[in-house]
Amino acid sequence: MGKFSISDLENLSGIKAHTIRMWEQRYGILRPVRTSTNIRTYCESDLRRLLNVATLCNRGHRISRVAQLSEQELCQAVMQCGEEGQDYLPQVNALLAAAVAMDEPQLQRQIAAALDQLGFEEAMLHVLYPFLRRVGIMWQVGTINPAQEHLVANLIRQKMVAAIDALPYVAPTAARRWVLFLPQGELHELGLLFMSYALRARQHHVLYLGQNLPVKELAAVCEAYQPYTLCTVLTSVPERDQVQSFVEELARISPHTPLFLYGPLVQRECLQLPGNAVQLRLMTDFLALANSLSLHPEPTEVLS
């Protein structure tokens, strides 16, 4: 599967098109097929090889030496790459190559190495989120199939759930209380899970309602739980022309509760925010918010 242009390879590997052409002509690392109009097209194995070559070159290996490696030697060299330094592109490229190959053991090894080296939050921000963004681009343009995308998402979800479970319990009567949810029809959960981890790690209490929650259920939740805030991520739901009315409906459900909004659908300039709503543009903005609020805990309250 997969037919890639040279600009696709540039976007997915981080290697400039002119460099790819030079490597191809001088070292023969790729063997594109030309269309009837003489345009280069590349296959999935070309992408995987380029990602592996880029991983090693970004680690300081000479392209003249890397180009001489067999496919097996290339994969072994990537697996043995040290994880030192602060350049995360090699780790992202190694993960992409493993995803394209459906190499689950290599994905597990690369994810574990990033977590061990950086810790959970730093690994998510610098390696796994950039990796997921690249996977998302590949899925959008049809160069990665649903099985590959699901493999990646489920492996990372498993790591997130395990990290959350490993955190100490925080009682709801001794912390700020957050309701985290995704609207009905929204299944992109990884951003919300990361928020849950970040809040719990900072001694907030989280009522995690997860995917696909009908908005009408929130009123009863707010009455029973008395949250400090509501927080949601809008990735693919609702439809773009319904985002404004959806946000206004959320604000009406609990008008005195802060509402934090994150995700691609809330980044539009034309979105008019109700008085109790706050737009978060970056995940680092959310982390800064969680840090700030953890320094100023609420007085202890008893749930009704």
UniProtKB/TrEMBL annotation:
Q: Name one Pfam family in it.
A: MerR_1
Annotated B12-binding domain ranges read 175-300
One GO MF term attached to the UniProt entry: cobalamin binding
Note the SMART domains from the entry. HTH_MERR
User: InterPro entries recorded for this chain?
Assistant: Cbl-bd_cap, Cobalamin-bd, Cobalamin-bd_sf, DNA-bd_dom_put_sf, MerR-type_HTH_dom, MerR_fam, Meth_synthase_dom
Q: Does the keyword DNA-binding apply?
A: yes
Q: Where is the HTH merR-type domain?
A: 3-72
The cross-references to Gene3D superfamilies, in alphabetical order and at most eight, read:
1.10.1660.10, Cobalamin-binding domain (3.40.50.280), Methionine synthase domain (1.10.1240.10)
Tell me the domain of life. Bacteria
Q: Which residues cross the membrane?
A: none
Q: Which residues form the signal peptide?
A: none
UniProt keywords (A-Z) are: DNA-binding, Repressor, Transcription, Transcription regulation
Q: Does the keyword Repressor apply?
A: yes
Query: Could you tell me which SUPFAM superfamilies the record lists for this protein?
Result: Cobalamin (vitamin B12)-binding domain, Putative DNA-binding domain
Q: Which PANTHER family match?
A: MERR-FAMILY TRANSCRIPTIONAL REGULATOR, REDOX-CYCLING DRUG-SENSING TRANSCRIPTIONAL ACTIVATOR SOXR
Protein name according to UniProt:
MerR family transcriptional regulator
